[in-house]
Structure formats: C-alpha cells, structure tokens
Design brief:
Length: about 150
C-alpha cells in the first residue's frame, strides 16, 4: 500500500540525499545499523528504489557503515546476540497500530525496550516513533507534547 504524495516526497528526498553525498564525498565513521521494517514495501517504492530499506539507507547511511533490514512485520527481528552487535535501529512506519497486541508488535516493543536500556541509537518514523518507551530520556518532548 503506497502513501501517495507523501511517499513521493520521501523518495525524492532520498534521491537528493544520495546525490548530495556523492557530490560531497562524505566519509562515515563505520558502525552497524538495522532498519526494522514494520510494513510491506509499496509496489511503487519497490520498483523505483528497491524498497523502503533502500530509501532509509539512502537518507541515513554514511560510507563505511553496515546496514541490514529486518522485516519486523513478518516476525523477523535480530536475536539478542545479533542485536548486541548493532549500533542503532530505525523503526519504520506501518499501517498497524503501534499499541496493538499483535505478536510481531509485542516482540518489536520488547526488542526496542531492551536496546534502549542498553543505550543504543533508535530512530522511529511515524509508527516507529510510537514504539520506543516514551519515558526514555533519549526522547525529547516539545512544548506541545509532541514526541520527537
């Protein structure tokens, strides 16, 4: 399921980010990162960009970093030992309710709570920003109560 105009803006921003990095020749510091994909790829993004994982990677990755995708919506998550070797996590958007008790969401929330407690970097997008523990000191609230 696509997101329409918003989807196009996201993928256009990803393409611009790739071009900007190529022009600047940015150098990353390494690290290992995972996208926890919480929804299926839309047909458009799959055909145009290879999927949402590639969009996130184009926007966020720096030279020398290792990135991989776990399809959380299908129950694919890193095990404890594997997660310990990952420096940061990106939790994608989803059409699902972040507070539902679907088995994959319960497992995702558990993983994110443990990784947050371990001091890992976590970026949540849309659905993903609702998943991490809101009481965490690593999340800021603006004056209107919006979690950023």
């Amino acid at each position: 399921m696509g997101m329409g105009p918003l989807e196009n803006a996201v993928v256009d921003a990803a393409a611009e980010a790739v071009a900007a990095k190529a022009a600047v020749g940015g150098v990353g510091v390494g690290g290992s990162y995972a996208v926890l994909q919480c929804g299926e790829d839309s047909e458009y993004v799959r055909k145009a960009y290879g999927g949402y994982f590639e969009v996130f990677r184009a926007l966020l990755a720096e030279d020398g970093e290792r990135w991989r995708v776990y399809r959380a919506v299908r129950g694919e998550l890193p095990g404890e030992e594997e997660a310990a070797g990952i420096d940061g996590f990106v939790i994608s958007g989803s059409c699902s309710d972040a507070h539902a008790d679907d088995p994959w969401i319960v497992a995702l929330v558990d993983l994110i709570r443990r990784q947050n407690a371990a001091g890992k970097r976590i970026l949540g997008v849309c659905f993903g920003h609702q998943v991490p523990p809101p009481s965490s000191s690593s999340f800021a609230m603006d004056t209107k109560g919006v979690q950023v």
